[in-house]
């Protein structure tokens, strides 16, 4: 993955707009697009009060998978390989984490316990996401967006999802939001999990790294639509593509909802939490792990 660095931006400016509105059979989809990166010292921004938050957040630093309590304590490194391991996704019960590993030299989906033990390979692919009932894991495969049981059986491809990545399930498990960049830009889609239909959201414009809200009413995504360069921000829209709002200003990527839908965690490039309208930004203390990405929040 390219890790472009961008200079001279203030993290105070990051924070908020508050309320402003190929050949798929032969290779896996493109790896995640590089987030914006800054050289500004995050210590210049005061840490926020995280004491009211509960649950645990998994994230990566492009090299390993980590977890931390949502209140900012108990930072734990779960993987320790000399190869990249990232893209963590919690099981609904918070007992396991699916993640991407490149220990074989190719992208693979692995599963481990929440404490990092009992790591096992599931299948080749990237961008894993557990279904709400825990019975399936969606992921990006060679032939398109795919589903597989956590025991490795029942693998199938969803038709019309070639190049699909960053899947996110609707709360009822009937649909999956995702993006594909086969057209040369990140286009968002929604697929029925029974394979019967794929809705093209290209009219919405460019976006990726989607995350469906727990109440099913909103979808978060990353986009550089308001920038002539590779800077990115966090946005939210309704599942039909309407009601788009920008939540961050000049820096933000890989957003994820809290389990109750009352907050959003994202990277910039440290970890931050905001309210769903983009207000009340709170920064995690400096974690000392480098650039963070792809957070996922469990109870």
Topology:
Layout: H1 11-14, E1 56-60, E2 65-69, E3 76-77, E4 85-90, E5 96-101, E6 108-113, E7 120-124, E8 126-130, E9 137-141, E10 144-148, E11 156-157, E12 164-169, E13 175-180, E14 187-192, E15 198-200, E16 208-212, E17 219-223, E18 233-237, E19 245-246, E20 253-257, E21 264-267, E22 271-274, E23 282-283, E24 293-298
Antiparallel strand pairs: 1-2, 1-24, 2-3, 4-5, 5-6, 6-7, 8-9, 9-10, 10-11, 12-13, 13-14, 14-15, 16-17, 17-18, 18-19, 20-21, 21-22, 22-23
Q: Can you walk through the features of this model?
A:
The protein has 299 residues and is an all-beta fold. The chain has one domain: TolB, C-terminal domain (Neuraminidase, 6 Propeller). It is built from one helix and 24 strands. The chain has one helix at 11-14, and strands at residues 56-60, 65-69, 76-77, 85-90, 96-101, 108-113, 120-124, 126-130, 137-141, 144-148, 156-157, 164-169, 175-180, 187-192, 198-200, 208-212, 219-223, 233-237, 245-246, 253-257, 264-267, 271-274, 282-283, 293-298. The chain has a four-stranded antiparallel sheet, with no helix packed on it. Strands 4-5-6-7 form a four-stranded antiparallel sheet, with no helix packed on it. The chain has a four-stranded antiparallel sheet with strand order 8-9-10-11, with no helix packed on it. Strand 21 (264-267) and strand 22 (271-274) form a beta hairpin. The longest helix is centred in the N-terminal third of the chain and has 4 residues, at 11-14. Mean pLDDT is 87; it is low at 1-27 and 30-46.
């Amino acid at each position: 993955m390219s890790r472009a660095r961008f200079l001279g931006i203030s993290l105070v400016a990051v924070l908020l707009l508050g309320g402003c509105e190929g050949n798929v059979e032969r290779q896996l989809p493109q790896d995640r697009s590089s987030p914006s990166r800054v050289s500004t010292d995050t210590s210049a921004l005061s840490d926020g009060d995280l004491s009211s938050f509960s649950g645990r957040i998994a994230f990566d630093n492009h090299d390993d998978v980590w977890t931390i309590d949502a209140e900012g304590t108990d930072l734990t490194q779960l993987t320790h390989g000399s190869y990249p391991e990232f893209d963590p996704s919690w099981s609904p019960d918070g007992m396991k984490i699916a993640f991407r590993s490149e220990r074989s030299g190719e992208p693979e989906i692995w599963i481990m316990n929440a404490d990092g033990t009992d790591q096992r390979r599931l299948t080749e692919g990237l961008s894993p996401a557990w279904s709400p009932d825990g019975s399936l894991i969606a992921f990006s495969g060679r032939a398109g967006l795919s589903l597989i049981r956590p025991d490795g059986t029942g693998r199938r491809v969803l038709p019309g999802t070639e190049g699909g990545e960053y899947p996110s399930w609707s709360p009822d498990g009937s649909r999956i939001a995702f993006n594909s960049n086969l057209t040369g830009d990140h286009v968002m889609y929604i697929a029925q999990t029974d394979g019967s239909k794929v809705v093209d959201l290209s009219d919405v414009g460019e976006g990726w790294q989607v995350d469906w809200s727990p109440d099913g009413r909103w979808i978060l995504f990353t986009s550089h639509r308001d920038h002539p360069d590779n800077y990115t921000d966090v946005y939210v829209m309704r599942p039909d593509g309407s009601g788009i709002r920008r939540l961050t200003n000049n820096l933000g990527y890989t957003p994820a909802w809290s389990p109750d839908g009352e907050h959003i965690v994202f990277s910039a490039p440290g970890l931050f939490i905001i309210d769903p309208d983009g207000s009340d930004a709170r920064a995690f203390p400096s974690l000392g792990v480098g650039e963070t990405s792809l957070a996922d929040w469990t109870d």
